[in-house]
Amino acid sequence: RRPPRSTLFPYTTLFRSGARAWSLCGVTWMLAILAASAASPPGQVSPFAVTNEAAFFSLLDLERADLAPVKTAVAGRDWAAAKRAWAEHLQTRVQPRWTWSHRDRAALLRLCQEKVGGLDQHIREADRVLARDFDLLGVRKQLGHHVQWLQGPIEWTHVLSRFAYWRDLGLAYWATGKKAYAEDFVLLAKDWIADNPVPVQPSTGRGPRGSVWRTLEAGIRGDAWFEAMELFMDAPEFDAETKYLLTRSLVEHARYLHAWGTAYRAGNWQVCESSGLATIGIMLPEFKEAADWRQRGFHYLVEHMQKDVEADGSHGELTPGYHTWVMTQFLKVGLLCRANGYAVPGLLDRHEKMFEFLLQLREPDGTFVRVGDAGFGRRNSVADSLGLGALMYQRSDFRYFGPDQCAENWLWLFGPGVFEQYARLKSQAPAFTSGLLPNAKYAVIRTGWDADARFLFFDCAPWRGGHSHQDRLQVVVCAGRELLIDPGVYSYDQPLSGSYFRKTEAHNVLMVDGAEQPAADPELLAWQTGPETDFASGQVASTNGLRHERSVLFVKPHYWIVADWVFGSGEHQLTRLFHFPLDSAAQATGKGARTRYQTGANLAVLPADEARLEMRQGWIPTGVASAKEGPVAALVIHSRLPAALGTVLMPFAEEKTLPVVKRVSTADPELLQIQVTFPNGQKDDVVIAPAPAKLTLGEHTASGQALVVRRGPGGETTIVVKGEGR
Predict the structure, then answer these.
(1) Residue 684, SS3?
(2) Which residue in 5, 219, 559, 677 is a FRET match for 343, CA 20 to 30 A apart?
(3) Shortest CA distance to 682 belongs to which of 709, 656, 701, 706?
(4) Which residues contact 78 (CB under 8 A, 6 or more apart)?
(5) Contact of 200 with 40, CB cutoff 8 Å
(6) Contact 468/319 with Cβ under 8 angstroms?
C-alpha cells in the first residue's frame, strides 16, 4: 500500500509557483482552497463517521426480527460473526428491492443476449477498468492499480469518484463469471473508503485537484453503489467485510447529506443529493435513522418538483442536458418508491410535463437544441428519454420518437418485462407543430415532425445561473439538418468552456459595440401561430438606455425574417452573428452568406440592409474535450439609433430557387419593409413593426405587428399578423 498523501501537497505546489500566486486573484483562490479544506482538519474525526464496528451495529434497529442473528452476534461482541450475519441478511432479504434483483440474473442475462446482442460492450469497458485505462470527459488517463483519487483536472476527478464504471465491472462479471471483475470491484471499494474518510463538514467546494466528497458526488454514489452491490451480491469475492465497509460508508454518506440538506436550494445538485439520500433511506431501512433520511430526501424532491419544474415542464436551470438528468433522477426515485411501496404525494406531479418539454425542443434530426450547458459537446439524442417517458406514462407521442427497440439500460429500470411493454405501446406523431413554452420563454417554430421539417428555436429565456449562456434572443435553425447552431459547450475542465462558449460571441445574437449582452432578463412580447405564419417577439434592455427588440416571422413554408430594432441614442456598431455547422463550408456570397453542402438542405443568410459581411471563425465542440474552428457570418453596420435591421433566413435545396431580398424605404424609420422576389415569379411584400401599429402595403392596410402580401402564379394572398401579446 502506498503511504497517505500529504494534506499539504496542494499548498506547497502553489507556493512554488512564485509571485504570480500572490496576485489578488491568487490570494482569493488560496483563501477559497483553505476554506474548502477546513472541513477536514488533520486528525479530527467527522461527526458523520462510523468509527468502528460497535458504532455501526449500534445504529441498526436490532429489535427487527430479521436481524436476530445480527443481534445475537452483537450481544457477544463477536464482530466477525455480526458482519457475516449482516452480509447474509443483505444477500437473502426480499425487501427492500432494487428495481431488479440479483436473483433474476439468469433471466436478465438471457434477455440481454436475445434482445440486445449480449454484454460485450460492458466486458470491453470492464477490461479497461482492470487495466486502469480511464477515458472520462474525453480525457484518457492511465492510473495506477491502487488509484490516486484526487487527479485533477477538477471535473475529471469528480467523475472518477461517481463510479459509473462499476456497472461495467458488474455486468462483465455476470456475463463471464470471471472473479477478476469482482476482485477489482472489492479492491476499488476498499481503496476509496480507506483513502477518503468522510469530512467534518459537508461541502460543495472543488479544491485545487477536485474533491471526492462534494455533496453532488455523494448523492450520485447513493444510487450507483446500490446497483453495484446488487450486481456483485452473490460473488464470493464480495465478502462480509466488504459488504460491511460499503454499507458503513453509505451510512456516512446519508448522515453527510442529511446534515447538508437543511434548506431548499434551486438546481440539479440538491435533486441529486436528495435522490441519493432518499435511495439510501429506502435501501437501508434497517438503520434507525433511515426514516429521517427518506423523509428529508422525499421532502426536498417534492419541493423541487413544485418550485424548480415549471407548469410547461421546463426545469429551472433551462439547460436541456441538466433537464434530462433531473428528469431521470425523479424517474429512478419514483420507480424505486413504486417497487418498495412508498407513496410520496407530489413527487412526480409535473414529471410527465418534463418529457413534453423535451419533445418540444427536439430538432428534426432527433437531438435537442444545445442551449446553455446542454451536453458537453456531444449530440444528445432525445430518443432514449422519450422512450422512457413512453414506458412511464404510456404515451404514444413519446413512443413515436423513441428508439425502434427497447434500450438495454431500460432493463435495469423497469425489469424483465420491459421489452414486451415497449413493443405493445402504440406510436403516433403529436397533433401540434409550432409551440410556445411560456415559462421557459422558448418559441419553437416547425413545419412538422419529419426529418426534413423546417425548425427554428427562439430563445427569450431568463438567466438561470451558472449553466446559462449569453444567448438572449438567439435563433437556431434546422431544415433537414442543422443550419444555424448554438455550439453548446464541452467539458468544464477545458478552457473554452469559460472563455468562449458561454459568451455572447458564441451565439446567434445581436451585439452592440462588440460588448457582452446586458445582464437583464429578456421579455417575451408576442407569440402567434397559424396556418400561414408563425410570429415571436422579445426584447432585452440594458442599464445604459439601450434596448434590443427581435422579432421572428415565419412565412410558411419558405423562410424566416429576423427583424432587429435597437433603441437608444448615438451611433453604435451593430453586429448580427450567425454560426454555421463545422462541415457546412459556409461562405460569403454577395452581401450574404450560405452553406455549401453538396446534397440536401442548405441555408442562405440574406441581409435586407447595408450591413458589411465579415466571415469569422468561432469554436465548435467536436467531442467532450476537443473543439475546432467553425464558420461564423457577422453582419456589421454602424448606425445611429434607433435602427431597424432585417435578415432573411432561407433554406434551399437548389441555388437557382433563391430569391432576391430588397429593403424598401418607409416614412416611419421604425418599420421594416422587405420585398422577397423568387425566380418563379412569386413576390412577397412584408412589413414588420416593433409594436402593433397600422400597417400599409400598397392598397392593403391592417392593424397588427406584421403584414404580408404574397403575389404569384397562384394569385394574391394577404396575411395579417396580430402579434398577440403574452
Answers:
(1) strand
(2) 219
(3) 709
(4) none
(5) yes
(6) yes
Report the percentage of the chain scoring pLDDT > 70: 93
- Tell me the pLDDT band of 20, cut-offs 50, 70 and 90: very low
Asked if the peptide bond before residue 642 counts as cis, ω within 30 degrees of 0, the response is yes
Q: Using one digit for the tens of pLDDT, what is the confidence trace for 244-282?
A: 999 999 999 999 999 999 999 999 999 999 999 999 999
On whether the CB atoms of residues 72 and 65 are closer than 8 A, the answer is no
Q: Choose among 691, 683, 676, 677: nearest CA to 721.
A: 691
Helix (H, G, I), strand (E, B) or coil at 505: helix
368-414: per-residue pLDDT in tens?
A: 999 999 865 445 679 999 999 999 999 999 999 999 999 999 999 99
Distance CA 250, CA 74 (A): 20
For residue 491 the three cell numbers come to: 467539458
Instruction: For residues 317 and 302, give the distance between their C-alpha atoms in angstroms, rounded to a whole number.
Output: 17
Measured CA to CA, the distance from residue 31 to residue 33 in angstroms comes to 5
**Among candidates 153, 167, 290, 144, which has minimal Cα distance to 225?**
167
Percent of the chain with pLDDT over 90: 88
User: What does the block give as the cell for 627?
Assistant: 473543439
525 near 538, Cβ under 8 Å?
A: yes
**What number of other Cβ atoms are within 10 A of residue 88's Cβ?**
14
Would you state the cell numbers that stand for residue 678, as one nine-digit string?
423568387
Of the candidates 197, 249, 256, the residue with the CA atom closest to the CA atom of residue 226: 249
The 3 state secondary structure assigned to 250-262 is HHHHHHHHHHHCC
Amino acid at site 408: E
C-alpha distance from residue 694 to each of 381, 663, 701, 706, 721 (Å):
45, 19, 7, 9, 12
| Separation between Cα atoms, residue 539 and residue 293, nearest integer Å | 45
d(CA 195, CA 560): 58
Q: In this structure, are residues 533 and 554 in contact, taking their beta carbons and an 8 Å threshold?
A: yes
- Nine-digit cell string for 160: 472518477
Evaluate whether 513 touches 568 at the Cβ level (below 8 Å).
Answer: no
157 φψ region: left (φ > 0), alpha (ψ -120 to 50), beta (else)? alpha
**Helix intervals (H) in 472-564:** 496-499
Element containing residue 298 per DSSP (H, E) = helix 290-307
Query: What pLDDT does residue 437 have?
Result: 97
The per-residue pLDDT for range 129-156, each reduced to its tens digit, is 999 999 999 999 999 999 999 998 899 9
310-345 tens-digit pLDDT: 999 999 999 999 999 999 999 999 999 999 999 999
